[in-house]
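Practice problem 4.
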């Protein structure tokens, strides 16, 4: 579905990504991890075409990303980046309908099918009851769910999400990730999502990519990637990994006040 070959990218003279090579299979759910400033958001910006790579090549279904015009790419890929500002007084329904724009003819209006797709997306993201509310009048968590609904309304084959559970309470975090995982399973939609919560990533993702200083530090299944050695090297933390008793997935345990320079978990004297 997606292939990155020796991709470099950055901002001005500052290089952020260094020789990133990655294959993402159709229908895969890939989580992207790493400390602040490691290049996670930049990776999504480059894959989505928002930020041009300065070197290397990106292919989408075998086609060079640079050969796809914006509308064609938007019919294949939806991207929700962090810090997206919505300052116009759209209603939630109008915002979600923007997701249908790549499918409309130039200067065309939404059809009944577009309205139906948008309504279903709002239902899935649990914002249908907010349809006529202005986005300037809803909470940050409600806006995040509305933006996810807008992405779903695009009916993408590839969904890129930058911290999709930010601003959400634990109940809505799980419901949104359950929804994305279900769509991933049922429709074969490829998902690449940035996470700060290692345990949520382990629960939902088939593979995890860890970035460190703009380079790939680890790539594999959650069991392969979430190890004490990798977490100490990348994040500088002492951690213990145990199976989640409810799912069997790896669960990261850390303790406050531990000596992060120690070889093992010990309290400072």
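Answer key:
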């Amino acid at each position: 579905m997606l292939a990155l070959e020796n991709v470099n990218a950055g901002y001005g003279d500052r290089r952020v990504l260094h020789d990133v090579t990655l294959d993402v299979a159709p229908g895969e759910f890939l989580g992207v991890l790493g400390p602040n400033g490691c290049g996670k958001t930049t990776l999504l910006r480059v894959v989505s075409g928002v930020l041009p790579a300065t070197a290397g090549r990106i292919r989408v279904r075998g086609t060079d990303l640079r050969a796809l015009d914006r509308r064609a790419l938007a019919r294949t890929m939806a991207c929700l980046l962090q810090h997206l500002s919505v300052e116009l007084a759209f209603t939630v329904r109008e915002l979600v309908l923007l997701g249908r724009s790549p499918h409309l003819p130039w200067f065309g209006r939404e059809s009944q099918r577009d309205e139906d797709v948008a309504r279903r997306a709002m239902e899935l993201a649990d914002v249908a009851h907010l349809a006529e509310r202005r986005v300037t009048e809803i909470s940050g968590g409600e806006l995040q769910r509305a933006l996810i609904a807008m992405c779903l309304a695009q009916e993408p084959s590839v969904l890129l999400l930058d911290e999709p559970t930010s601003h959400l309470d634990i109940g809505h975090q799980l419901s949104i990730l359950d929804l994305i995982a279900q769509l991933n399973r049922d429709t074969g939609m490829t998902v690449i999502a940035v996470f700060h919560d290692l345990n949520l990533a382990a629960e939902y993702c088939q593979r995890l990519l860890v970035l460190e200083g703009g380079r790939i530090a680890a790539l594999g299944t959650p069991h392969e990637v979430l190890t004490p050695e990798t977490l100490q090297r990348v994040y500088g933390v002492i951690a213990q990994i145990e199976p989640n008793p409810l799912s069997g997935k790896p669960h990261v345990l850390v303790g406050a006040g531990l000596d992060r320079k120690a070889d093992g978990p010990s309290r400072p004297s």
